[in-house]
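Researcher: Please translate sequence to C-alpha cells.
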Amino acid sequence: MPTIFDPLVELIHSRTLESWKGRNEAARATLFGSRYHKRAETSVALRAPDMRGSDAGVPYAAYIHPSNADSGAYGGMSFVLFPAKDEPCLVAMVVGTQGLAPDEAILGRPGHSRKMQAIARWLNSRFGTGELVAWPKQDPTRTDIDVPESIRRSWSAYETVFKRYGRYIYVMYKPTVDQNGTAAGLASMLDVMFEERGHAPLKSFEEDAIATRSAWFSHLMPDTDSDRVLETLRTRRFVVIQGPPGTGKTELALDPAHAPAKRGSDEVPIHNDQGDLVAYAGRSIDGTEPKYKNPGH
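Model: Translation complete:
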C-alpha cells in the first residue's frame, strides 16, 4: 500500500549517492502539508552534503534543529540516514556531535528514551524475523557510550558510521528486504520527533499515526514473568528488569527460580535500580540445588 514515506523508503533502499541532496530535499518536502503541517517544515533543517568520491567523511542526510549553522558540527536531536555500500541506509536518531543543546530538555526526558526503546522493541518483534534489526541506547544523553561490539560485528556494513558517530546514535534501524518495516521505522521515529517539536500528524493521517503509536506503545512496558527471565538467563549473562515503582521488579528479580539458569558460577548478583547489590541467587556447583541469600549472610 502506498504511503507518504515512499520517496524516503525508495531513497533508503536505492543504495546510491547519486543526486543525494536533491533526492533528500524532494523526499523531505512530501512530508509537509500532508502528514505534518506546513509549519512543521520550519522545525527542522536538512543537512545532506554531497560526499561522493570522498574518503574524508561519512555521508549522511540529517533533519536537524534549524538554529544550527549551515555547516560544521551541529547539536541537538536529529533524524539521520546513513548510506552504506551495497546496503540500505541505516535509519537513526542521533545526538549532534556539538552536544545536547538546543534539545537538552527533550533528550534528557526519560519519556523520550522510553519511547525510542519501545519503538526498537516493536521493530525487532514485528520485522526482525528472529534477527536484531533495531537497537536503542538506554540514555540518549550518554554520548560516552558507544554502539555495542556485538552490534558492530553483526552490522559490519555500517562500521564507518559507527566509528565516526557510534557514540551519538541512540536508536537505529537496519532495513531489511521488507520495505514495510522501513516505512514503519520512519513513521514511528519521525512522528515522535515532530511531536517533540510540537507538531502532531494532521487529522487526515491521524488514524494511521494512532495505529503506529499503538503498535510500539504496547512494547513500552512489556510484560515480563519468571519464565521469560529464566529463558533469557539461559543465553545471557544478565537481565535488566525495568518498570515503574510498585510493579514487582524486586520480587521478580529475587525469584530463586532464576538461579539454575546461571552457568559457570554458583551465585547471581541482584542489583536494584541504583546499582546497589541487594541479594544473590545461585545454584550449587553441580547445579542440583538452587539457593538464595541476602548479601552479608
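Researcher: Any highlights?
Model: Residues 6-217 form one domain.
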